[in-house]
Predict the 3D structure of the following.
Amino acid sequence: MSVQTRLNYEMNRQLQSDSDLSLADYSLLTALTEAPGGRLQISDLAALIGWERSRASHQLRRLYERGLAQRTPSEDDGRATDATVTKAGREAIKASTPGHASLVRRMFATQYPTNSSNPSLRRWNTSRSASTFNSALPRTP
């Protein structure tokens, strides 16, 4: 199993357990929270987080239903729709960030192996070892 798969699994599990947010919720809300005025056109939001526009739109609908974000006509383009983080969405991000940051530190805060002179290999081995050691998923062979 790839390092990315393990990391996504662990981050999603931690966020859901600690704050009732999925990793997708966290990604979208973080992007909106960091945007000027907490607002982005859905197409810009999707591009920013590397998603298809339809995925961002569906996720935004889920956040809207929970009161964490809003969909409004775009202020810049009458044909487009903007996504805006709500006060509840900002509070959810603020509450979830310490646990999320702690997990990321645990996943990557191990010493580099001293038996390799290749810095890229050391980083890869450390990332893979940390993600495997600190993971709730079964170990890979």
